[in-house]
Amino acid sequence: MKKVFSIYILIAFLGFTACEDLEFLEPKPEDRLTREIALGDLNGVAGHVARGYHRLHSNFGWYGQNFMLNGDALADNVDLLNNTGRYVGQLVNAARTTYNIYGAAYQIINDENIALEVLPELASEDPARAQLLEGQAKFARALAYFDLARVYGYEPGQEVGGFNLAVAITPGAVLGTSNIEEWPRNTNVEVYTQIKSDLQDAINLLPAEGAASSSPYLPSRTAAKAFLARVNLYEGSYATAAQLAEEVMAETGATLTTAANHLASWATAQHPEAIFSLNISSLDWGTVTGVNSSLATITNTNDPSRGLNSAQGVLRASVELLASFEAGDIRRDLWVNPTGPDLWEGRKWNGELGGFREHIPIMRYSEILLIAAEGRARSGNDAAGLAHVNMLRANRGLTASTATGGALTTLILDERRKEFVLEGQRWFDLKRLGLAIPKAAAQGGVALPYTDFRVLANIPDGALSNNTLLTQNPGY
Question: What is the pLDDT of residues 257-280, one digit of tens each?
Fold first, then answer.
């Protein structure tokens, strides 16, 4: 039976908030718990692991909203539908308006470092649970480092001007100001090595999909393998990426949607393609959070018939995106225009759980299929790559392609553009390949050169002030 991994976090774990100046490293005395109290058993460790996962969606600068939509706004997939002041800077690639996950990501890393530091001392309490928590912690830490690396650094082999720094690897847990250490930025290769090590450990530690565990809403070994495939694709290890993706396709319970059910799948509580997903529970949000900050509110206009009262409808499809769909492509029908002929709203994020809440699939079967396709095509096996991409095309209502060589890799990139719109992939797909970033005509139509300093986000000023060993990205 298909199992979607959603994150339900108790309200007790919501004590920290994201901040870019790393104030979480300086707890107030009344908030400070001793290690013996907070981490005296595996329940305390589980709290730290869970808090890290909660940050992935509770911070709307990350998977809760901005990270999922920036990839389209920074490139050529969306334009403004309703100018509320949001995404205006991203659409024109204004400096310092790209991604802002630095503080939240290091909070997650610290949450998981704390858990990993004490787990060996507590493993005898319940060895199986300790192993599970270690796998969950390493999965979350790897995801945080990966997103940091692709936001603030170049991918290995795609450096500009020899600049190869990513972010700092912080090996120790910080429990208070007494043990804060400063660390310089590591190279992109070093950070990728750390990410792959954590994910390989997670594969070995986590349960199989559907297996009973003490935390059923956290990732499986299949989810860890899927993310490792994505990391290898970004690194340019194409044959390895394809091999891992094909293994995931063979073992996952997720299923590829078809032309008949693809549209409806986005209005279901659990997306059938989801290999790893997040859930925003009713405990996570205040009374106005959804209407102000959700994916649904940004991509839909007001629609009381669907429970979207006062939705803001900020972004619409660009003319260029709509023109890219071939005749018969069912994905074109995810865009509707209820408020005007040129006002095309997306229907991926519908708030189907009520109150603008929904599961947010972070890794889907179709991505694994396209990783396999690209990995095979870029490592010299056009026949296998073509077979994989044609499987997706058939399930989206399209005829088979006969492309080979450069035309095949271009086709795969174009399929990724249309398949993952509003899921945060477009910008990073162009960046990881060292390509210029095309812009919609509404934003001037002039591509952003890959060598432009704005391809990398700026390290926050607060982080630089708190760590004298950090250096800023070029151009800022």
Answer: 999 999 999 999 889 999 999 988
209-227 pLDDT tens trace:
977 453 336 799 999 999 9
pLDDT in tens, 300-329: 999 999 999 999 999 999 999 999 999 999
Structure tokens that stand for 238 in this block: 């194409």
- Contacts for 287 with CB less than 8 Å, ≥ 6 apart: none
Distance (Å, whole) CA 157 – CA 361: 29
Q: CATH number of the domain that 375 lies in?
A: 1.25.40.390
- As beta bridge partners, residue 354 has 357
Q: What is the mean pLDDT of residues 2-9?
A: 38
- Shared domain check, 345 and 448: yes
Nearest CA-CA partner of 473 in 66, 152, 144: 152
Instruction: Return d(Cα 312, Cα 310) in angstroms, integer.
Output: 6
Predicted confidence at residue 36, as pLDDT, reads 58
Is 195 found in the same domain as 56? yes
Range of the domain at 408: 72-94+220-453
Contact call for residues 319 and 443 (beta carbons, < 8 A): no
79 and 139 share one domain: no
270, with CB counted inside 10 A (0-12, 13-18, 19+), is: middle
CA 28, chain centre distance (Å): 31
197/203 Cα distance (integer angstroms): 10
Instruction: Write the CB contacts of 427 (distance below 8 Å, at least 6 apart in sequence).
Output: 70, 71, 72, 74, 75, 437
Token pair for 305: 């018939």
